[in-house]
Design brief:
With about 150 residues, the chain is an alpha+beta fold. The chain has two domains: about 1-45; about 50-150, no CATH class. The chain has helices spanning about 1-15, 20-45, and strands spanning about 50-55, 65-70, 75, 80-85, 90-95, 100-105, 110-115, 120-125, 130-135, 145-150. An eight-stranded antiparallel β-barrel has the order 3-4-5-6-7-8-9-10. The radius of gyration is 25 Å and the shape is elongated. About 10% of the residues are buried.
Length: about 150
C-alpha cells in the first residue's frame, strides 16, 4: 500500500513538473482571465447612469468598486414615493412630504434590506425590474404578505 501511494505521488510530481503540462495550465488561466475582462467591460458599458446608487461595500466590504443602480421613483397603488440615499441606507418619502415614510437599512445578506415604517416591519429587496418588493408578517392574520412598490 505504501509503495502504491509513493508511486502515485511520484507520478503526480512528474506530471506537475513537466513543461508541457504547466504551459497548458498557464494558457488556460490566461484565456479565462481575458474572458472575465471582456465580460466586465461589457457589463460596465451597459450600466445606465440614472437613479440612486448603492455602494456595494454595504454588502461586500472587500469590493468597493461595484455599484448597483436603482430607480429613485416608486409607485404603490395611486401614491408616488421617492427613494433617497442616506448614511445608513435609504429613506422612502411619499411625494410632497418631508416626513420619512419608511427606512431601508442593508443587511449582511447582499441585496436584502430591513424595512421599517410606522406600521410595518419586514424585509425588502429590489427585483430585476427595479421594483421594491416588501415581505412582512401580518400581525392580524399571522400570514406572510407581500407589497410591491412599482418603479417608474
Amino acid at each position: 500500500m505504501k509503495k502504491a501511494i509513493l508511486f502515485i505521488g511520484t507520478l503526480f510530481f512528474l506530471l506537475m513538473t513537466m513543461p508541457s503540462y504547466t504551459q497548458k495550465t498557464s494558457k488556460k488561466q490566461e484565456e479565462s482571465k481575458t474572458k472575465m475582462e471582456k465580460i466586465q467591460k461589457n457589463t460596465n458599458s451597459k450600466v445606465e447612469e440614472k437613479g440612486v446608487s448603492t455602494p456595494d461595500h454595504w454588502h461586500n466590504p472587500k469590493n468597493k468598486s461595484n455599484i448597483a443602480r436603482l430607480s429613485h421613483k416608486l409607485m404603490l397603488k395611486n401614491s408616488a414615493f421617492q427613494l433617497k440615499l442616506n448614511d445608513n441606507g435609504f429613506d422612502l418619502y411619499e411625494n410632497g412630504s418631508s416626513k420619512v415614510y419608511a427606512k431601508l437599512v442593508p443587511t449582511p445578506k447582499e441585496g436584502l434590506y430591513r424595512y421599517t415604517s410606522s406600521t410595518i416591519n419586514g424585509a425588502a429587496h429590489f427585483d430585476a425590474k427595479g421594483n421594491l418588493v416588501l415581505k412582512y408578517l401580518d400581525n392580524d392574520t399571522g400570514k406572510m404578505k407581500e407589497i410591491q412598490f412599482q418603479s417608474n
